[in-house]
Amino acid sequence: MQEPSPSVIKAWGRLIRAERTVVGRIEAELKSAGFPSLHWYDVLLELKRGPEGRLTPREIEEAVLFEQYNLSRLLDRMEGEGLVRRIPYPGDRRRQLVEITDAGRALQERMWSVYGAALNRFICAKLTDKEAGQLSTLLLKLILE
Amino acid sequence: MQEPSPSVIKAWGRLIRAERTVVGRIEAELKSAGFPSLHWYDVLLELKRGPEGRLTPREIEEAVLFEQYNLSRLLDRMEGEGLVRRIPYPGDRRRQLVEITDAGRALQERMWSVYGAALNRFICAKLTDKEAGQLSTLLLKLILE
DNA sequence: ATGGTTTTCATGCAAATGCATTGAAATTGA
DNA sequence: TCAATTTCAATGCATTTGCATGAAAACCAT
C-alpha cells in the first residue's frame, strides 16, 4: 500500500478531533439548558425547511445521514413528545410524511437560541468569515462523489 | 442573540457532514474486511505510540476523547480479545497501565493496511497536499482552547 | 395479469453508550 | 495526623444504536 501523505493523515486526525470537540461542547450546552440532542434539532430543522414542514423519512435520512432504523426510532420518540406527527403519503401506502408540529417548531427555535450562541462562541470566535469560507470549500471536496 | 454568520453555519454543517461521510466510508471498509471499529484502532495506535506500548486510561481518554466509562468498557472488550492487558501502575494503586500486546500490535498493522488505503481513496484523492495543510490549519483553530 | 424484485418502514434482539453512583486510593489542608 | 476532598476506575441501570429480518406496498418484466 502507498502510505497516505503525512499532511493528509494530520488533516484527518484534526477533522475527527475538531468534530468531536465542537460537537461535545455544543451538546454540553444544549444538555445543560435542558434540551435534547443535536440529532433532534437536525430533524426538526430539516422538517421546518421542507414543503409545509413535511418530509418523508427517506428524505430526512438523506439530509442528516442517519441509519434508517435509527431514524425510525428517533421519530417514534419525537412523535411521543408531540414534536412531529406521521401522516399518510398520498398515493403510496409504503411511505409516510413526517410533519413538524407547532411544538416542534417552538422547540427548534428555543434550541436555536442556545445552539446559535454556541456556534458563535465555538466557531465564529475562532475563524474569520474568510476562513470559514475556505473551510467550507475544502470540506466540500471530501463530501463529494 | 447575534446570529452566527452564514459562512460559519455553512462550514459547521459541512464539518459534520464531512466527518460522518468519511467515517462512514472508512468504517464500512473496515467492517467488510472483518475488522473492529475505528475506536479500537485509535486505542491500539495510541498505545503503540506510548512509552513501551503503555498508557494510563486517562491518557488514552485524553488522546482519543472518549468518556471515561466508555473507555473502561472498551478496554474490557479489548482485553477479552487479548489485544491489551491491564497492569498495575507503580506507586499509585488507583491507576493502571494499559499495555498493547503482540496481538494488538499485529491487529493495528493489519487494520492500517485497510485504513490507510481508505484514507488514500477518501481523502488523498480529494485534496492536494497543500489543501490538506490548509485544512489542518483551519481545523486546529477550532480545537484550541 | 402475476410472480419475482425492489422500495419503504418497523422491530426483536444484541451490543454499545450515557448517566449516576460507588469504592478505593491518593492528596490536601487545618 | 487525620478528616475532607479529589482523583481514578468500575458498574448498575436506562437509553440508544447496530444488525438482521420482517411485512406491506409498489414496481417490473414477461
UniProtKB/TrEMBL annotation, chains A, B:
Keywords from the UniProt entry: DNA-binding, Transcription, Transcription regulation
Top-rank taxon: Bacteria
A Pfam family annotated for this UniProt entry: MarR_2
Organism: Microvirga flocculans
UniProt cross-references to SUPFAM superfamilies, sorted A to Z: Winged helix' DNA-binding domain
GO biological process: response to stress
The protein's name: DNA-binding MarR family transcriptional regulator
PROSITE patterns: HTH_MARR_1 (PS01117), HTH_MARR_2 (PS50995)
HTH marR-type domain: residues covered: 5-144
SMART domains reported for this sequence: HTH_MARR
InterPro entries: HTH_MarR-typ, MarR/SlyA-like, Tscrpt_reg_MarR-type_CS, WH-like_DNA-bd_sf, WH_DNA-bd_sf
GO MF, one example: DNA-binding transcription factor activity
